Amino acid sequence: MQPVLRSLGWSLRLEAAWAALARPDLQPARVTAQHRGEYEFISGDGPGRAATAGALLHHASGPQDLPVVGDWVGLRTGLIEVVLPRTGALVRKLPGEGSEIQMLAANVDTTLVVASVTNEVNLRRIERFLTLAWEGGAPPLVVLTKVDLIPEAGRVVRDAQTALGTVPVVGVSNVTGEGFDELALHLEGTPTLAALGPSGVGKSTLINRLMGEDVLATAEVREDGKGRHTTSHRQLLFLPGGGALIDTPGLREVGLAIVEHGIEVAFEDVAVLAAGCRFPDCSHEHEPDCAVRGTVSNERLNAYRKQVREAAAMARKVDKRLAREEARKWDKLYRDAKTRARQR
User: Fold this and answer.
1) CA spacing 20 to 30 A to 113: which of 9, 58, 89, 106?
2) Could you tell me the residue ranges of all domains in the chain?
3) Exposed (0-12), middle (13-18) or buried (19+): which is 232, by Cβ within 10 Å?
4) CATH number of 90-247
5) Nearest 5°: CA angle at 235, between 232 and 238?
6) CA-CA distance, 21 to 76, in Å (whole number)?
């Protein structure tokens, strides 16, 4: 394993996947930024730019098959031809009524869910980020910024920790440095982080502090304590002490893609209590002898129900979309076969 690749996050798992690929004509590289129609990458030879190979585009069944920031890929002559198997892929449903998804980042080990204490902490939005992180296999850590701006910040952080259960919650000040020693303990030894959160919560300033220099543009806080949107695209940065961090633009909506276990992990308290319900399929709404209802707060239980309903609706949409895509595929094969038959 090349030392340069190892410093970029190359691992024994990736080494094995690369060997199984058996493509000596390709060069391994990691995607560091994504633009319209082009990617930035870094390899053992340094940084560069590449486009997606036509064959990769042709065979892709959706965005999940195409490169995203954090991916390890195989390059040849300025084209990305292969995307290596991922871990920790963060995916959301795009806004709207459809079932299209957006890949946010790949090969993430820990997700930093960033919010601000300067206004009421939106626990419901944080819970949705937690589900996204757990579903993607990148355990979350909640970071509450701007604790220097309000006197009751300590109470806000403690209340958030109580409400969110076992997920670590750390309050920090990007100005005074408060909380960064605690945050460093949580992040120690993490190969790749990804920072998620809405616009204006101080995410870019937080990342600059972790980087030890101003690598991202920031904007002054408004009079109401809110920040301004600054990040315009996803990018991977390398931390001075080792490891990488993926910055993402602020997300207004956190739509849930296909969810198999993320909700149950994000709402672990509900899942544990549900084991005591009389009925194994208890919806925790009207059934008798429900162990959840009345124990968990109505706000949190309603949030859980909402996510379950949303995930079920998304799964139904995807089933219909896949059926349509399968029908189109066979229709195209049939038409191509007729065309070839006429040409004989």
Assistant:
1) 9
2) 3-83, 90-247
3) exposed
4) 3.40.50.300
5) 140
6) 14
Model pLDDT for residues 271-285, shown as the tens digit of each residue: 999 999 999 889 898
Provide the β-strand partners of residue 8.
none
CA distances from 248 to 99, 118, 154, 235 (A): 21, 21, 27, 7
Tell me the two tokens of residue 54: 């036509």
Q: Tokens representing 186?
A: 């949580």
Kindly give the interhelix angle for 153-164 and 123-135, rounded to the nearest 10 degrees.
50
Please enumerate in sequence order all residues whose Cβ is within 8 A of that of 216, keeping only pairs 6 or more positions apart, or say none. Answer: 204, 207, 208, 230, 231, 247
Q: Does CATH place domain 3-83 in 2.40.50?
A: yes
**Separation between Cα atoms, residue 80 and residue 114, nearest integer Å:** 32
Q: Do residues 92 and 255 lie in contact, with contact meaning Cβ atoms separated by under 8 Å?
A: yes
Structure tokens at 9: 């996050």
User: How many CA atoms lie within 13 Å of 161's alpha carbon, on the beta-carbon side?
Assistant: 12
The model's pLDDT over 191-250, given as tens digits with 9 standing for 90+, comes to: 999 999 998 898 999 999 999 887 766 655 544 445 444 555 789 999 998 899 999 988
pTM: 0.85
